[in-house]
Design goal:
The chain has helices at 12-16, 24-27, 76-97, 134-139, 148-165, and strands at 41-42, 46-50, 60-64, 101-105, 122-127. It is of the alpha+beta class. It has a 5-stranded antiparallel beta sheet with strand order 1-2-3-5-4. Helix 3 (76-97) crosses helix 5.
Length: 167
């Protein structure tokens, strides 16, 4: 087995930051569909939101509007839309960024690594060969070729194009 690590020292800013106690998966959808919410696509029961502390450009999270930490008790319609929007996110990321692979995952509970343990969400992280380098480890600096605002615009356009094209 390969001994590899994904170093993300910039996430320390998030880890050490004061937490207001508000749930970002509840408060951000209430902001509307502008760039401030970082929500490039909404469904009926779930939505897609850019991670404000991304591992790579295009790192999104798919979450239900319902505030719950329990994946097991989600109703069938919400569970289906959660996965459908995850698949749609993969297509939008492929269109906007052309990644070579993806990390897709759910961390259930704080001990499992969930930054927001009280609201279930799926991470979709686009990956490229060589997308991690010495900068985060040596200099504590990440090299992100695009701002969050640019990522939002690119993904919003990709989701809109997929929606216009239909199933």
């Amino acid at each position: 087995m390969a001994n590899q690590r994904l170093w993300a020292p910039w996430r320390l800013e998030y880890i050490k930051s004061d937490k207001t106690g508000e749930c970002i998966f509840c408060s951000k959808p209430a902001l509307g569909d502008d760039e401030a919410a970082l929500i490039p696509h909404r469904g009926e029961r779930c939505f897609v939101m850019l991670n404000a502390f991304p591992y790579t450009n295009g790192h999104v999270m798919v979450a239900p509007y319902e505030h719950t930490a329990d994946l097991i008790t989600l109703d069938d319609e919400t569970s289906l839309e959660l996965m459908t929007l995850t698949q749609l996110s993969l297509r939008a990321l492929a269109s906007a960024y052309g990644p070579e692979g993806y990390n897709v995952g759910i961390n259930l509970g704080r001990i499992a690594g969930a930054g927001v343990a009280d609201h279930v969400h799926i991470h979709v992280v686009p990956r490229w060969g060589g997308d991690t380098n010495f900068m985060p480890v040596v200099a504590g600096t990440r090299v992100m070729p695009q701002t969050l605002e640019q990522s939002y615009a690119a993904l919003r356009a990709a989701f809109a194009a997929l929606q216009a094209a239909g199933p």
